[in-house]
Amino acid sequence: MSKPTITICIDYDLMPVVKELQSRRKFSAFIQDSLRQHKSIIEAESLEHERDKVEQELESLLAKRASIEKKLKDIVVEEAKAQSIDDLVIELRSLNNKKKDFEWLGDLPANKKPPQFHEWHNRRMQVFNTLKDMGFDFSKLKE
């Protein structure tokens, strides 16, 4: 069975020991024996390194997940806002169409107008102000 050749780095302070082992042709055997004796330690260190790498990837994925969830939430909120604006526009158009029903009141003082007029007017103003607060462009309402 052929054995692979590897290159290792040795600290300068260990060079005298390495030269001594090489001169006796025991360096390779020494390294192999050391690796066999410390196999479990080497495996443990390798597994710890792999675990740390997986933890870093997990943290990265969790951060990415949080970012995606935030974007998704923003999209859902924006869509709900758009739907709400659409619903309010429909309601405002409906309320505006009912204005004809109250034209017969003319210039009556506010305290003489019927409660239905006040309910209609207050709801219309409420919808108008809500749309205004949401930044609705009222030029689109004329379409």
Q: What key phrases describe this protein's structure?
A:
143 residues, mainly alpha, 69% helix
Describe what this molecule looks like in 3D:
The chain is mostly helical and 143 residues long. Helix content is 69%, strand content 0%. The chain has helices at residues 15-23, 27-37, 39-97, 115-133. Helix 3 packs antiparallel against helix 4. It is rod-shaped. The model has no long low-confidence stretch (mean pLDDT 85).
> What is the overall number of helices?
4
Please count the beta strands (DSSP E, at least 2 residues each). 0
Cα(first) to Cα(last) distance is: 87 Å
Structural class: mainly alpha
Mind summarizing the main beta sheet?
none
Say what oligomer this is.
single chain
Q: What is the 3D shape? A: rod-shaped
Estimate the helix proportion, in percent: 55-70%
**Average pLDDT over all residues:** 85
Report the portion of residues in β strands: under 5%
Radius of gyration: 40 Å
pLDDT under 50 segments (min length 5)? Answer: none
Order of helical and strand elements: HHHH
